[in-house]
Amino acid sequence: MPSAPGTWIEMGEVNPPPLPSMTHLELKGRWEHVLITDNPFKQVRVSPYAFAARIAHDVPEVRPTVVCSTRNRNILAIESEVRGALVNGVESFLVVQGDMLPEVEHWSNSYEIVEHLRALQGSVAPLRFEVGMSTRSRAWTFRRRIKVGSQFFSTGPAMDPASVRPCADRLELHEGDPPVYLEVVPPFSAAWVKRLEQVGALRVTNAFRARLEAVPANQRRQWAWRTARAVAAEGRRAGFAGIVLMGLKFETVAGEAYDAWHDKSLAPD
Fold it and tell me: Which regions of 23-74 does DSSP assign to beta strands (E)?
C-alpha cells in the first residue's frame, strides 16, 4: 500500500472510461499500482470508485488508489462512495481539492474529508484502508496535512530532473514522515510543458526548455520517456517514496508508457 514506508512504488494514473466498458482488463500484466482520476477538467466519466472495484475484482494483481475529489460533493456523498468501494476490495484513497481551472464548485473541504475518513477507519474493521492527500511542495502545507492525518502524499508534477531536488528541499522531508510520491509527466512538447506549468506543474529551467526545443520532432517522444525516467531516478535519490506517471490517456498508460518505462534502451544516462 502507498502508505507503507520503505518500498519504492511506481504507479500509473488512469482515467476511467467515459461509458461502462471492460477496458480495465488491459491493465493485466502491466502496472501493479494505479491511481484513478475523478472526472478531471469536468469531463464526466465512470465513477472512479466503481472503476476501482472492477479492477479489484477482475485484475486483483493491480492495486487501485482512488482520487477522492471534494469538488461538487459533500462529506456524506464521499463517505458513501468510500464505503461502497471498501466492500468491493478497494483499500486506498487520495483526497484532493479537485480542479481549480476551469472554475468549478467545491462543496466540501479536503482537510475535513481526511479527518472524516480517518475517523471512519476505526469503524469498519476488519476492513482496512488508507487515506492520502496531494500537497504543494511547501513545508508548511506538508506539515499541516500530516497533522490532519494524511498517511501518504503526492506532489508535483515534475517534468525536468533539475526541478526534483528543489521540490524535495522545499518539503523539508524528515525521517519518519509519511511517504511522498512524486508526480511525473513526460515532456512531449514545449506547448505541453507550458500548459502544465499554467495549471501548477513544477516549472522547468530555461536550459531544459532549450534542450526540448532542440530535439528533432521524430525523436521527441523517446526523449520525453527517457527524461521522465530521469525525473523518477532523481526522485528516488531525493527521498521520495515512488512516482505517479500522469497526464496520459488510458491506452497510453496501459500500452506505450509501460513498455517505455521498462525499455532498457530508454534508461536515463
Answer: 33-36, 63-69
Rounded CA-CA distance 89/41 in Å is: 28
Nearest residue to 64 via CA among 190, 244, 240? 244
The three cell numbers locating residue 182? 512524486
Interaxial angle between packed helices 206-214 and 190-198, expressed in degrees from 0 to 180 and rounded to the nearest 10 = 150
pLDDT tens figures, 133-178: 999 899 999 999 999 999 999 998 999 999 999 999 999 999 899 9
Question: How far does Cα 181 stand from its chain's mean position?
Answer: 8
Pick from 135, 149, 141, 160: which is nearest to 241 by CA?
A: 135
Answer yes or no: are the C-beta atoms of 173 and 244 closer than 8 Å.
Answer: no
Alpha carbons 180 and 142: distance in angstroms, whole number: 10
Interval 8-52: pLDDT, tens: 999 999 999 988 899 999 999 999 999 999 876 677 889 999 999
CA distance 108 to 205: 36
In whole angstroms, give the CA distance from residue 128 to residue 243: 23
CA distance 23 to 94: 22
Of 132, 128, 186, 188, give the one whose Cα is nearest residue 158.
186
Other Cβ atoms within 10 Å of 36 Cβ, number: 26
Residue scoring higher pLDDT (172 or 109): 172
pTM to 2 decimals?
Answer: 0.92
Q: Grid coordinates in use for 64?
A: 487501485
Could you identify the residue written with the cell 531525493? 238
